[in-house]
UniProtKB/TrEMBL annotation:
Gene that encodes it: PBG1
Organism: Symbiodinium microadriaticum
Domain of life (superkingdom): Eukaryota
Alphabetized Pfam families for the sequence: Proteasome (PF00227)
One of the GO BP terms on file: proteolysis involved in protein catabolic process
Family the entry assigns: Belongs to the peptidase T1B family.
Protein name, as recorded: Proteasome subunit beta
Function recorded in the entry: Non-catalytic component of the proteasome.
């Protein structure tokens, strides 16, 4: 095989296996997609209630499996009538929040004159909407959603207890219960949560609030294996 053919096949093999091209040519792929999350957030609970939508999340950002940052807000206000919550890589959430802020500014300035800006992201048919978008871009609308471990532990509670005509206090209590259950069983959950409310009056994100937890349950403290009982517990 001639040297030119050998070089051609070698380049093609490199492109097929690793796309080893000029430095920086494919660098945007690494910046746009977080393949190995480092600092992550856990469960976010979202649900509609009779007057709007609420989102709830704990304030922990884990560095791997280490509970590293314990005062991180994973809820963000976008415009006057949009509330964003995110689990997973925190840097992706921050980047997405910046992009949405830019979009809100552009919409406000482009819809009308600069002197009289229009409200960004107006309400659709004046009704609350709760949307879920996964890491692959799949989007859908639902009455209640959850991310992370909450998809396994929170969704069953929401299915059994959610009602379309729930009051705000009932919705907050249910969201808190879901995060409490996740805290008991998810090593990346935390005992301090924030609840955001998006309603006709606007968006409000509450302060970090501790949740009640109790670790003295008999099933968690007694060692049953010594009595010949092979039943496992938490």
């Amino acid at each position: 095989m001639c040297s030119s053919c050998s070089l051609h096949h070698r380049r093609r093999d490199l492109n097929d296996r690793g796309r080893a091209m000029a430095p920086g040519q494919y660098s945007m792929d690494a910046k746009q997609h977080t393949m190995s999350p480092v600092v992550t957030g856990a469960t976010v609970i979202g649900m509609k209630y009779k007057d709007g939508v609420i989102l709830a999340a704990d304030t922990l950002a884990s560095y791997g499996n280490e509970a590293r940052y314990k005062d991180v807000c994973r809820l963000k206000k976008i415009g006057d009538h949009t509330l964003l919550g995110a689990g997973g890589e925190i840097s992706d959430f921050q980047y997405l929040g910046d992009l949405l802020d830019e979009m809100a500014d552009e919409e406000a300035c482009d819809a009308r004159s600069v002197l009289v800006p229009a409200p960004p992201f107006p309400l659709q048919d004046q009704a609350p909407h709760l949307m879920y978008v996964d890491h692959q871009g799949t989007a859908f609308e639902e009455d209640f959603v959850a991310t992370g471990f909450g998809m396994h532990l929170g969704i069953p509670l929401l299915r059994n207890n959610w009602k379309p005509d729930m009051s705000l206090d009932e919705a907050k209590a249910l969201a808190t219960k879901c995060l409490e259950v996740c805290f008991y069983r998810d090593c990346k959950a935390y005992c301090k949560i924030q609840i955001g409310v998006c309603a006709g009056a606007g968006v409000e994100i509450g302060p970090p609030t501790p949740i009640n937890h109790f670790w003295g349950h008999t099933a968690w403290t007694e060692n049953r294996l010594e009595d010949g009982d092979s039943t496992g517990t938490w």
